[in-house]
Each structure stands twice: as structure tokens, then as C-alpha cells.
Amino acid sequence: MSILGLKKKQPKTFKVKASTMDAEMEFSCEVKWKGKDLFDLVCRTIGLRETWFFGLRYTVKDTYAWLKPDKQVLDQEVPKDSPITFHFLAKFFPEKVEDELVQEITQHLFFLQVKKQILDEEIFCSPEASVLLASYAVQAKYGDYDPNFHKPGFLAQDELLPKRVLMQYQMTPDMWEEKITAWYAEHRNITRDEAEMEYLKIAQDLEMYGVSYFSITQNKRDTELLLGVDAQGLHIYSPNNKLSPNKSFPWSGIRNISYSEKEFTIKPLDKKKEVFKFYSSQLRVNKLILQLCIGNHDLFMRRRKVDSIEVQQMKAQAKEEKARKKVERQILAREKQMREEAERAKEEMERRLFQLQDEARMANEALLRSEETADLLAEKAQIAEEEAKLLAHKAAEAEQDRQRLEVTALKTKEEKRLMEQKMREAESLAVKLVEQSERRLKEADHLKQDLNEAKDAERRAKQKLLEITKPTYPVMFPPPPTGMDFKDSDMKRLSMEIERERLEYMEKSKHLQDQLKELKSEIESLKLEEQQQAGLYSLRSYAEPPYIPHSNVRNTQTY
């Protein structure tokens, strides 16, 4: 059997990845599904009921396109990747967000998309408005500002301002954070959905909010312009100015829009006004412009009609939901307030308890100090009493010493008088001895002089005798003896006696001088002892207080 005739089996499903602004979802779709089937599946998955604002966008070549609801997915110019990537985004924007956006999920998706467009500079925003919008974005993300929790630097990782604004001023990230936090602190008690709504209410007043721009030419000479499509109508801009349109065509003033290949025609409702034509070079872009025009015009007309039953039900449910959440917030706020009050009361009680404990501790310490002071005073009183007794005893001893010193002083005076008398007698005796010694010395000198004279007379007599008695005898015989030897011995004996007497006198005189010195030294020691005793008595009389009664001493020491 030949296999060439067998057809390749086609897959029954294909994979799709749908990305919202804060989530990604993957689905397995049937081949026959249309764009509406996939779109409804995504809406059901995220719980979105206000589907008319949104669409699935995909990238094709150098532009983008929206998935058509009434045509099969695979029959459109979707990417051939697997899974096929779609972006779930807002295709049409409301005129007044506070009136048209009912569900919180719808509001949240718009908030995320508009915030990204502002940060990517697809929507121009002034620096002041950027800071205010950033403060509401911070409130939506972090809740109420708490300085104890939101420390400086807590916004360092968040992208909150367009790069153009950051580059426009020479400010540090800390300075920008300080400005944003100053506004953020004023948004207290605003819930997340309320903060997001305030963000959108400010953003919808920006000139480029909700506008889709396309490059066009006004004539075949290729005068370049920009076409803007939004919820209000069609606007013609200069290429270098997307903020102020040169010409506007509100939906209420347009009778018909048509295009033929590259030419678009806008017919005003007022037939007197000129028809406006412009050209677009790409057929795919022309189809996209037509889709946006039709969709925005349908919503414009829808807003001016009575709400459908479905929208009325959604608004009623949203109103009930908001009322319920408001009650819940009030209950939570009341509980939070009660909890904060309870915590404050607890803190106050703890503070009061700590204060009472400190006071009790201080009172106990004061009591202990007073007890210690009382013990110390009692001890001091006892010491004072003992000191008083000791002082009384010392006073008595001092009195006895004084009396003893007085007696001693009297004895010392008598002894001094006797010693002075002895000294005077010794001095007179010494004077007499000195006089006698001088007299004896004089006598000895006279005797020595007489002795010398006698020796001289004797020597002369001997000389004369020798001269007289010259030897007439023979030389061999000695001369006759004379009386010279006898006289010499007498003189020597006399001289020795005189010398011995002189030495005895000198020895007695020296002994007397030694006695006199001992007597003087004894007198001096007695005088010194008397002076010391007199000084000691005077010192005690000043140093030792007089005897006072026992009770007075104790009271004085205690005080």
C-alpha cells in the first residue's frame, strides 16, 4: 500500500499566550475558534464584564493590529509562533472615567496601561502632574503612609516618573522621593481603587490621553500630518506637535467617514462645511484607522443613550459593592481606631506601670537610704557618745596633767633656783680658781725666773772659780772636788717640785673646768625641759576642748 496518497494529519488545537498589564495566561484553543471566542475566554478568566473597551492586539510586520472578533484566529495575520502572543489592552478610552468605569478590574487595567504610557512618554505629562500622579500610584501600591515603616529609600526600586522629567531637573533620586512622599502623605485613608481612580481622573485631562496617532498626508503632494483618533472625535496635528490639534472633527459633527484604498473622506454634518480628505499609504493602517473610528463613534453614541440592562445591573452591583466595601472600610477603620486606641491605652498603661514601678523602686531605694541614714545616724550618735566619753576622760587627764605640770613647774622653778645658785657658786669658785691659777702661774714664772737667775749666778761663780783655781798641779792628777754637783742636784729637785706642783694645779684646774661644763649642761637641759613642759601644756590647752556635758556633745556630733 502506497503512503504517498495519505494526507498529513492537521492539529485540532493551537496554543495562545495572552498578556495583560499584570499577568500572563496560556490557553489551548480550537482551530475553528474565532477572535470573539478567544477574547471571551480571556475576559472570563480575569473576571471582566466591561469588554467593549478592550481588545487583543498583536504585532504584524512593522505595525500592530487588533484581533477581529468575527473572523477565525488562524485566518488572520497573526504570528506563526507557538504559542501565539496577544496583548490584552484597552482599545477605546472613556470620556469620563468616574462615570463609565464600573468594575474595579476595568479601572485597574486602565490604571496600569495609562501609567505605563506616561512612563514610556507615549502621553506627555508635566513634571508637577507627574509627581502628583506618582504619589497616587504609591498610595495604590503601599497604602497609607507610615513614617515608621516607609523609611527613606523605600521607593528606590519603583519606576514612578518619566525619564524626560528626571533629566529635566538636576535632582537626585532622594530629592524626587522626598517630593513624592510629601504628596503621598496627604492621601491617607484612600483605598487602592480610589487612588487609581484619582490617578485616571488627572490623566484623562492630559492632551495625549486616549489618542491613537497615525501618519497621513493631506494631498498627493505629500504634506505630512498626524491623525489623532480618540473618544471625542478626529484631530489633525502637525508632525512636531501632538498636543494642540490644527483642526478637530467631533463625532457629533461627522456625518460620514469613508475610505477608498488610500484615500479617507470626512464629511461634516453641516453640509456647508468643506469635506476633509487625507491619504494613508498602508492598507493595513487604513483598516486600523477605520476600526478605531467605528468603535469610538459607536461608544460615543452609546454614552448618549440610556444604559442597557446589563450596564444598569453592573452599575447597581458596583454601587452595592462600593457601599458594602465602604461599610467594611468604616468597620475596619473603626476597628483600627479602636485597636489603635486600645494600643495607645495599653502603651499608656504600660508607661504608667513602668512609671509606678520606677516610683516604687525609687521609694524602696529612698526607704533603704533612710534606713541606712538612720543606722548611720545611730552609729554616729554612738560614736559621738563614745567620743564625748573619751573627750571627758581626756579632759580629766588633761586637768591632772595640768596640775601635775603646775607641781612640776614649781619643782622645776625651785630646782632652777638651786641650780642657778650652784652655778653662781661654781662660777665664783671657778673665778677664784682661775685667779689662784693665774697667781700660781705668776709665782711659778717668778720662781722660774729666780731659778734661771740662780743658774746664771752659779754659772758665773763656776767660771770665776775655774779662773781662780786654774790648775797648778800636774796634769796627771785630777782637780780637787768642789760643791758644784751638790748644788746642781738641789736645783733639779727644786725645779721638779715646782713642776709637779704646777702640774697638780693644772690638773685640778682642768677637773674644775669639767665640773663647771657639766653643771652648765645640766642647767641648760633643765631649762630646755622646762620650756618643753610649758609648751606641751599650752598645746594641750588649745588642742583639747574643755569638758562639756555628755548630752551636748552627742547633739553637736549628730547635727
UniProtKB/TrEMBL annotation:
Residues forming coiled coils: 315-468, 502-536
MF annotations from Gene Ontology: actin binding
Keyword Membrane found: yes
Pfam families: ERM_C, ERM_helical, FERM_C, FERM_M, FERM_N
Subcellular location: Cell membrane
Residues covered by region (Disordered): 540-559
Annotated protein name in UniProt: Merlin-like
Entry membrane topology: Peripheral membrane protein
Chain's gene name: LOC107669382
CDD domains cross-referenced by the UniProt entry: FERM_B-lobe, FERM_C_ERM
Organism: Sinocyclocheilus anshuiensis
Source taxonomy: Eukaryota, Metazoa, Chordata, Craniata, Vertebrata
Binding locations of a 1,2-diacyl-sn-glycero-3-phospho-(1D-myo-inositol): 68-71, 287
Keyword line: Cell membrane, Coiled coil, Membrane
Residue ranges occupied by any FERM domain in the UniProt entry: 14-304
A GO CC term assigned to this protein in UniProt: plasma membrane
